[in-house]
Amino acid sequence: MPSYLVTGSNRGLGLAMVKELLKDPNNFVIGTARDPAQCKPLEQLTTEYPSNRFATVALDLLKRRSVDEAAEGAAILLPNGLDYLVSNAAVCHQNITPFDQIDVDILEEELVVNTAAPLYLLQKFLSLIRRGGERKIMLVSSVLGSLDMAPMFVGCSDSYSLTKAGLNMLGRKWGELLKKEGITVVVVHPGWIDTDMGGHIEDWVAQNAPEIRKLSPAESAEGCLNMFRVAKLEAAVEYYAWDGTKLPW
What we know:
The protein is 44% helix and 14% strand. The protein is α/β, with parallel strands linked by helices. The protein has one domain (3-241): Rossmann fold. It has a seven-stranded parallel sheet with strand order 3-2-1-4-5-6-7, with helices on both faces. α4 (104-131) links the parallel β4 and β5. α1 packs across α8 (217-230) and α4 (104-131) runs parallel beside α5. The two termini are 34 Å apart. The mean pLDDT is 95.
């Protein structure tokens, strides 16, 4: 039974990924949230699926001890290791804030959640991945992290862009080393999604990039996961959009 762990699965893309994965009766899925017991969507899923199909683990990316405990809890649930790890959780607190007005204190929190925490997450979960069968890691990033495409998105979530550029570097460099172990790492742009985070840039998109289509969380989740499943070790490390097209770094 393939095993998946998805961070930030209390809402938005993460929750849509969990629901998409649970459609396959052969999958065992673990969803994370800061407090799963207080998350109604995850609690509902625990009533719909047996414990050998779906489980939750508490995970607060701002607290390293929480990541430690999440890894320990997941290890109990996954005696044979973890096949697929999806690092999805992220924050964007300064959506349309120009560089000269970015609050550096807020930026530091964004960097922790979006860049440093995924690094620590991989450090703590790597032993589980190494014991898994598929041994795949997805880093959910953004097209905003692309250096080549940055001039197209000036003024759109600039502080968030800094954090995702760092995440891209994490995936590209560490992924090259993990590839030698037989671990596949992919970096994914999930598209512009109809979520709370995506809603804050509607005016910018309308004025600067009206050709960009907004996706439902379900559509993005399906595309990202389809691409993740078929990703090959020999193609790692690649930077993909949700529909499988390759993006420039």
